[in-house]
Amino acid sequence: MRATVEDGRIDRQLDDNGEGPSGIYYLKDVARYLRATDLAARGYTLSLSPQQISGWGRRDFFDLHKNEFEHNQSFVEFPHLITSRMIALLLSYGIKIRRIVRAHEYVRSETGIRFPFANKTFWTEDVDVPIHMYTKIDEILVAADEFGQMPFRGLLETRIVNATGMEFDETRNAINWEPLDGVLIDPEIHSGAPCIKGTRIATAMIYGMHVSGETEEFLAEWYELTGLQVSSAIRWEQSLADTEPAFAT
């Protein structure tokens, strides 16, 4: 089920599987996922924090909500997670936040897409998108990192497209994200928590049992998984722990 959000508050109604609302991501988790994936692969040193992501919400990239049952922690939904992923990637290529805001506003006004950065338009060079729109985006977004200046379409062709790991629906909106081979973040599975792909088993549960002393062999047998599935879950959760910053969240 989709999360119900009214007046910035979350409806905790459970679904038929006894799970809570789907696709709910606290800002501290969004920061952890991004630090452990695209930014780590880029060797980017941005100390991405929940506060910084909250600032993106205030710039109208997406809506921020509060969970009154969890000390009013701020959270976002799945399209906002993917939007944050694109923002972080563009920042890592030296593109200024004001230009990212301009590109986002331009595509939203041209297409009517509510969350352009969670749409296939921004992740692959879509043949159905008018060429003039990509030309305008190129004018707005010019990367300036260690590779020198590069227009947005150059990033799509050589770098960003290789970082996707996502599936899109018929409206070209992202519907899930595989941040690591064998690990899937799907808003419709286990309330959107990272799970072992093809199952509803949360990677955090596997990792918790492993650090408590259970062997990978035991976990594979107990949950009827392959050794590779178990090791991928552990590797993913360990990557989150390894990128945990010193500041409080």
Describe this structure in words.
The chain is 41% helix and 15% strand. The protein is an alpha+beta fold and 249 residues long. It has one domain. The strands form four sheets. Strands 8-9-10-11 form a four-stranded antiparallel sheet, covered by helices on one side. It has a three-stranded antiparallel sheet with strand order 3-5-4. Helix 1 crosses helix 10. The radius of gyration is 19 Å and the shape is globular.
At a glance:
With 249 residues, the chain is of the alpha+beta class.
Secondary-structure topology with pairs:
Blueprint: E1 5-6, E2 9-10, E3 24-26, H1 27-36, H2 38-42, H3 50-58, E4 65-67, E5 73-77, H4 78-92, H5 97-111, H6 131-140, E6 142-145, E7 148-151, H7 152-158, E8 166-168, E9 174-180, E10 183-185, E11 195-196, H8 203-211, H9 216-222, H10 227-242
Antiparallel strand pairs: 1-2, 3-5, 4-5, 6-7, 8-9, 9-10, 10-11
Helix pairs in contact: 1-3, 1-10, 5-6, 8-10, 9-10
For this structure, the quaternary state is: single chain
Helices and strands, in order, run as: EEEHHHEEHHHEEHEEEEHHH
Specify the helix fraction band.
Answer: 40-55%
**Which class best fits the helix and strand makeup?**
alpha+beta
Number of strands: 11
- The number of distinct structural domains comes to 1
Q: How large, in whole angstroms, is the Cα Rg?
A: 19 Å
What's the number of helices? Answer: 10
Shape: globular
Average pLDDT works out at 84
Widest sheet: strand ordering: 8-9-10-11
Instruction: Report the biggest beta sheet as strand number plus sense, adding barrel if it closes.
Output: 4 strands, antiparallel
Uncertain ranges: 1-20
Percentage beta strand: 15-25%
The separation of the N and C termini measures 28 Å
